[in-house]
Amino acid sequence: DAEVPPEILEGMLTRLETFVEPFAEALDEPAQRRHTLEYLTGLLSDLKHKTGEGIAYLPDQQRQGLPKFIGHVPWDHQPLLATLADQVGERLGEPDAVLVFDPSGFAKKGVKSVGVARQWCGRLGKVDNCQVGISMAYVSRKEHAIVNTRLYLPEEWTQDRGRREEAGVPEPLAFQTRPGLALEMLQECGGRLPHAWVAGDDEMGRPSSFRQELRDANERYLLAVPSNLLIRDLEVAPPEYAGRGPHPKVPFTRWDRWCKALPEGAWTRIEVRDGEKGPLVIESVTRRVQARTETGGTGPEELLYLTRVRQADGRYQHDSYFSNADAGTSLKERARVAKAEHRVEECFERAKGEAGLADYQGRNGMAWHHHQTLALLAAW
Asked: Could you tell me the pTM of the whole model?
């Protein structure tokens, strides 16, 4: 139903060639640079399934080199992602933008594809057979885009030498947690992207070690945390001192139980932005807390930022976040950062629906990273 002025289409392929040039410059061979343009052309086409083989036959002529270019030729995809980060930072950059880390699951059948295992798949909302990629997105008021990605290899994969060799996983590669992959991407291209915040879902926010790494890197974060996290409210009076032994402290409790005990007067109403059906309004609570670490210790003081939104059925949806931001940071600013995390879903919908992000069929790690990289360029 769209009406497109004809002049918009004039010179479109020439513009695509110009777009591809700074990315293809990082590749050594002329054939590789040509295949980069051909593959992006296919990813931006109306093919139903944008696989390497499907793209190769798109112009009705065989291109045997294209599937090999994706799955067998060892070209380095990292310089292409670095150029992507540079462009995103230049075009969308704002000093208070948000870097968002998000684990994304790709449902798979069988056990041969690299990294596939029965594991938590956020897209399906359950444990299932899938691959998981950790993505880094950039969100500013101008727009949002995914700028980097890593394939997560479960520990069972890193310990199975035969399986690794069959899937083309490099020998030196050791097991890395999902937050660890996020830190790698932050160190690699965070400096290319002006930002003031790091955000992520509760899988990113749960490990206290990840939050500590961000503090050590002088990164300001607002990370979702799960409802079963144990917290100590530092803004309530501790139990009365009995006169002997150490002074008692407020006991730890699950934040969802702590939340239920909050009085109605504790909530502050915030109008975040205009929505299709009127202003988007949330209610929030902020507290100074400490959290239990994975080893049972006590973490440093952090801010617990709790929000709720009334649903159509009258019930509230609650979300909670930990932050190391200054206590004077406005509630509206925290709400803006919290909503930035949801922009990643829009990025994935765009990349999967328009650029074939989930259409790859290669089983080895090289094919996965090559396809993902070129799909991110196509989405951009």
From this structure: 0.90
